[in-house]
Amino acid sequence: MKPKHDYTPSAELMRHFPEVSGNAVNGLGETQRRSPSPFFWHPPDRHPFGALQQFIVNDLRPAAGEDHSFRNPAVDRGPALVEVDEEVTEASAAEWTERVKAFALAHEADLAGITVMRPEYVFEGYRIDEPRVIVLGVQHNYEVLAKAPPSAEDLSAYHELHQQYNRGARAAHELTNFIRGHGYQAQAFPGPMADALVMIPAAIQAGLGELGKHGSMINRQFGSAFRLSAVTTDMPLLSDAPDVFGADDFCVGCQVCRNACPPDAILDVKQSVRGEEKWYVDFDKCIPFFGENYACGICIAVCPWSRPGVADNLIGKMARRRARGK
User: Fold this and answer.
1) 294: closest CA among 193, 154, 121, 164?
2) Which of 139, 208, 259, 307 gives 20 to 30 Å between its CA and that of 148?
3) The Cα angle at residue 254 between residues 274 and 1, in degrees rounded to 5
4) Which residues contact 302 (CB under 8 A, 6 or more apart)?
């Protein structure tokens, strides 16, 4: 595939960039572990990119006809949250784990995994008191997602992104109310705007997939064509194990997303980010393209794992490769 690195950001957008690099804010090149700093999708007064965020959200966001965005008050993002019931329903951790997952999957979630809270799952300046995280995934309509990036002529991929974010929000709110109704603390983290919780590391530990070269997760069933939301809680639950099925190894040799990225934002080798070697996407290159195109999604749409019916063959291929390496 011939690389499509053909994008140059507009001078108007670049005037809103701060002097500090977003990569520095994200901890690129740092060798010591720390919690991540608030970034672009947090409230604009909590990070250096507030002016750029406001410009993209207020000036570049399309007037999109039927508005599916999370900013539209008419959009259904789930029920209002109820108070925690005064009476605690007693059950074992195994029983609650089964019930919580069954409830989530019956209320719009397509994936559900559980892990314990860690300090690195909380953004600097924020606090989470609940000791466990339930991470939810909602699948994209691949045929619509494959039309990314959106354009003024075809906003279907833009609508699809917001529809799944809103479905994830509904799933998180429903599950939060279910847990609160049984007397346990629970907080919803619906996305897409950032809050206290760092979702992707928690989702990896909760067994929802591996981190891909494009900076998004790869799930063994849905590839990268899904979105996350989450609920934190003190309900007794059993943790899931990470699911390692070969996606990370596959990304080492795959160039599909990197070649398809117009601003050339996807780095080809892992980087040290806040003391962890991981795949990384150059923020300063990615966000201008995202802003000027109303959203993006190219990298997750072209990811070979995202194509329906492909994942099983790739998992088998990676298993055979690992077996030959032993």
Assistant:
1) 154
2) 208
3) 125
4) 256, 257, 260
Q: List, for residues 137-152, the tens digit of each pLDDT value.
A: 999 999 999 999 998 8
- How far apart, in whole angstroms, are the C-alpha atoms of residue 282 and residue 273? 12
232-273 per-position pLDDT tens digit? 999 999 999 999 999 999 999 999 999 999 999 999 999 999
Domain of residue 263: give its range.
21-79+91-325
Q: Which residue has the tokens 């190894």?
A: 249
Angle at 25 between CA 19 and CA 30, to 5 degrees: 120
How far apart CA 129 and CA 197 sit, in angstroms, is: 11
Examine residue 14 and state whether it is found in any structural domain, yes or no: no
Calculate Rg over the CA atoms of the chain. Answer: 20
The strand ranges marked E within the chain are 111-116, 132-139, 186-189, 210-211, 217-218, 226-233, 271-273, 276-278
DSSP state of 39: -
pLDDT of residue 65: 66
CB-based contact 217:224 (threshold 8 Å): yes
Question: Could you report the per-residue pLDDT of 290-311, keeping only the tens digit for each?
Answer: 999 989 999 999 999 999 988 8
Judge whether 11 lies within some domain.
no
3-state helix/strand/coil string of 266-323: ECCCCEEECCEEECCECHHHHHHHHHHCCCCCHHHHHCHHHCCCCHHHHHHHHHHHHH
Which pairing describes strands 132-139 and 111-116: parallel, antiparallel, or unpaired? antiparallel
Number of separate domains in the chain: 1
**For all residues of the chain together, what is the average pLDDT?**
94
Q: Is the pTM of this model over 0.90?
A: yes
What per-residue confidence (pLDDT) applies to 69?
81
Q: How many CB atoms lie within 10 A of CB 20?
A: 12
Cα(151)–Cα(8) distance, integer angstroms: 16
Token code pair at residue 224: 């990268």
pLDDT at position 74, please? 83
Report how far Cα 225 is from the mean position of its chain's Cα atoms. Answer: 10
